[in-house]
């Protein structure tokens, strides 16, 4: 997650845009599909052998050791979704669940951590948004509860927060949106990095994981474990990044429809129906009024956001609103919108944050099954190579 502004967080200006290209999937020209598309090389892959699984384990060993989990897969923290149930389910399944603190106040976070600990004895982490006004207290809550890993998201974490987390015994994971920042974060004490490409759901940076991985893995993978995020939907992709030097992956979108996820059934249904090209980043109408890109499924709300921006800009031009008021007005449009969609099920007006891998979400299934599928796909490639 890059430096962000979101309305689902406290005292933080909100910004989610919408795309002028938003159209229903039916309206888009779809290139004709060949009746029988050529099978990928691994389509006939034999089922993963024990040797292939052992090889996959070796590729994930460093990341898994860092996380203390069976697999080097972090559950991407998703506000309102990554709470006790999904986090514990992921950790129990062998991945590494991460609680999304989002706008929670310290006592609420303490409660959520305790509830998660009651559901799993496996390790899990907590994702803290760096501009939370009570960041220091939230770090303390994690330390008091002996949470082993703190993930700082939404901006460059203040050095004192990193120091406090480490001195308290937690490992620190930071998001690195560029190579220079990756180096700086490691100098500041980050024990591991997440590189999140623009394919991801939620607040995104401008660069794809494909490019970030090429820029950052060769330079940083030897120094600290680097986890890749954004658009990872299948095991083949996970494997390819492991082979490039990634320690593991952070996956969000694929876990939204886990049976254990408390997301509203209508939110899950939108994911099951959604295709990659429906998950678009917001677009700002006017450079004077920045909108931080958020990747989400297009809906009535995204359409109205475009109209809202246009109307606010018109009022600014007519002298009715000064620049600050206009910017705030645009930012407030999405206040509470993710909660509205995830918790209340208002999938028309709420924010349907989703990554491009949403097209690979085809049904609701237990977290363990989704994870096993990804591992099977990765191991099958290794088995096919050895055959
Ligand atoms: C609905 C949703 C909410 C998210 N909320 C957060 C958040 O609160 N904090 C954060 O650091 N990242 C957040 N993310 C990003 C995920 O943690 C993760 O990095 C991302 O989902 C990975 O990309 P993928 O969705 O393509 O798997 C969110 C993503 C989604 C889809």
UniProtKB/TrEMBL annotation:
<keyword id="KW-0560">Oxidoreductase</keyword>
<dbReference type="InterPro" id="IPR013785">
    <property type="entry name" value="Aldolase_TIM"/>
</dbReference>
<dbReference type="Pfam" id="PF03060">
    <property type="entry name" value="NMO"/>
</dbReference>
<feature type="region of interest" description="Disordered">
    <location>
        <begin position="1"/>
        <end position="49"/>
    </location>
</feature>
<feature type="compositionally biased region" description="Pro residues">
    <location>
        <begin position="31"/>
        <end position="40"/>
    </location>
</feature>
<protein>
    <submittedName>
        <fullName>Enoyl-[acyl-carrier protein] reductase II</fullName>
        <ecNumber>1.3.1.9</ecNumber>
    </submittedName>
</protein>
<dbReference type="GO" id="GO:0004318">
    <property type="term" value="F:enoyl-[acyl-carrier-protein] reductase (NADH) activity"/>
</dbReference>
<keyword id="KW-0288">FMN</keyword>
<dbReference type="GO" id="GO:0018580">
    <property type="term" value="F:nitronate monooxygenase activity"/>
</dbReference>
<keyword id="KW-0285">Flavoprotein</keyword>
<dbReference type="InterPro" id="IPR004136">
    <property type="entry name" value="NMO"/>
</dbReference>
């Amino acid at each position: 997650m890059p430096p962000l502004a979101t309305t689902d967080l406290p005292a933080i200006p909100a910004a989610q845009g919408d795309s002028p290209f938003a159209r229903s999937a039916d309206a888009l020209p779809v290139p004709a599909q060949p009746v029988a598309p050529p099978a990928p090389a691994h389509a006939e892959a034999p089922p993963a052998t024990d040797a292939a699984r052992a090889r996959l384990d070796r590729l994930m060993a460093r990341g898994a050791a860092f996380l203390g989990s069976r697999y080097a897969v972090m559950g991407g923290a998703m506000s309102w979704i990554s709470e006790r149930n999904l986090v514990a389910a992921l950790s129990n399944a062998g991945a590494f669940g991460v609680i999304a603190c989002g706008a929670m106040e310290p006592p609420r976070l303490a409660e959520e951590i305790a509830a998660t600990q009651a559901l799993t004895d496996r390790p899990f982490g907590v994702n803290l948004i760096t501009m939370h006004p009570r960041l220091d207290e939230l770090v303390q809550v994690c330390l008091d509860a002996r949470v082993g890993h703190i993930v700082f998201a939404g901006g460059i974490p203040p050095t004192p927060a990193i120091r406090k987390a480490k001195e308290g015994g937690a490992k620190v994971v930071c998001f690195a949106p560029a190579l220079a920042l990756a180096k700086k974060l490691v100098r500041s004490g980050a024990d591991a990095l997440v590189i999140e490409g623009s394919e991801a759901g939620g607040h995104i940076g401008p660069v794809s994981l494909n490019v970030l991985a090429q820029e950052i893995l060769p330079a940083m993978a030897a120094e600290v474990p680097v986890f890749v995020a954004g658009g990872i939907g299948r095991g083949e992709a996970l494997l390819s990044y492991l082979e490039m030097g990634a320690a593991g992956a952070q996956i969000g979108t694929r876990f939204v429809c886990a049976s254990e996820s408390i997301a509203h059934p209508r939110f899950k249904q939108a994911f099951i129906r959604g295709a990659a090209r429906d998950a678009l980043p917001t677009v700002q109408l006017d450079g004077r009024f920045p909108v931080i890109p958020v990747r989400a499924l297009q809906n009535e709300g995204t359409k109205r956001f475009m109209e809202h921006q246009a109307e606010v800009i018109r009022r600014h031009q007519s002298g009715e609103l000064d620049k600050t008021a206009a910017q705030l007005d645009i930012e407030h449009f999405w206040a509470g919108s993710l909660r509205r969609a995830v918790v209340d099920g208002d999938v028309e007006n709420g924010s349907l944050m989703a990554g491009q891998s949403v097209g690979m979400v085809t049904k609701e299934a237990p977290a363990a099954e989704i994870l096993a599928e990804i591992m099977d796909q990765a191991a099958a490639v290794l088995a096919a190579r050895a055959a």
